Amino acid sequence: MPVIxxxxxxxxxxxxxxxxxxxxxxxxxxxxxxxxxxxxVIGGFLFAIINLFLHIFExxxxxxxxxxxxxxxxxxxxxxxxxxxxxxxxxxxxxxxKFLIVxxxxxxxxxxxxxxxxxxxxxxxxxxxxxxxxPMTGGHGTSGGIAPLVEAAGFKGAEAVAYTAATFGLVAGxxxxxxxxxxxxxxxxxxxxxxxxxxxxxxxxxxxxxxxxMLSSDRILRAFLVMLIAMFLGSYVTDLLNLFxxxxxxxxxxxxxxxxxxxxxxxxxxxxxNLKKDGGKWTVPSEEIEIVGNVGLNLFLAMALxxxxxxxxxxxxxxxAVLLGAQLVLMFVYARFVTFKVMGSTYDAAVLTSGHCGxxxxxxxxxxxxxxxxxxxxxxxxxxxxxxxxxxxxFIDFVNILVITGFMYFI
Length: 411
Description:
Helix content is about 75%, strand content about 0%.
């Protein structure tokens, strides 16, 4: 079979073309817009399917240089660290902390189920784990960070399984959340039970507010500088942690972005502490860092997904169907009997339950979309729209990575 090798520059250029195609398809195909499928996922998977046929019919073998994929991945996760503000978590109140615990416990169960089913289904624990919280709560971003480590440990097909599971989760979580919340609201008559105290919850919505300002080249440069410094220093932290882990096991290691994430959290904490000293301005340009991180995520996902070898899923179709079905049942039962009850069994709790289905199996935007479908039909829920973005957008990725790493010690 003839081979085509893309250089580093050609690989990133091709990924950008796929990203542009994905953006066009998302704007013009209702299904993609309805389920908030990321443009990078659309374009990347589209080529992965084309590449599958090229491989089956032995037309050509396309090989990419993925050097920049790792770089953009670390940029994205470093931005997650800068976004995890200890000040916001402290000021957000007990409901945010409670929901963060609920979401973290779900991550544990999402990994425990495939771990226990692996032997029954005749698949390795490493492969089974790629249908757990890595693609479910973590989505495509965490899948791109964790799956290559699992594949490098000898579990062939880990990346294809993780990305496929993440795409399934986006759709399944979006389909599940709205009907579940609607059932809870109607069955328990939550609209009539909604008391004044719940409607009048005092929430510091300024925590999520962002003042609009003109883009500044200086602040964008500062964003790049602080992120690259965090990536530089954090890389040594990751190396030290992995040196320690290597003395315990050779089957697991911390992802390359963990150290940069930790430095991002540290820098954000220092920035928060100096907030008053800086005349009310952030010493760390958090908005610009978020923009840079979003660029990194899209380029990283496009490169990762266009390299997926879908033909490696051929022997895993039945086990994957069972594992993903188990995740679907887990999410429904957990959201219905844990998330809803722990968050207070109120109308706001029902709305938040629909959001948890969305981001517990996909991504925060899917969770928000689920909640919007409920409040459009019934009443607004300031509590749900305050709690979920803070947990889903700032903290759960970091917690999830720690949970996943713990499970990786046993594969």
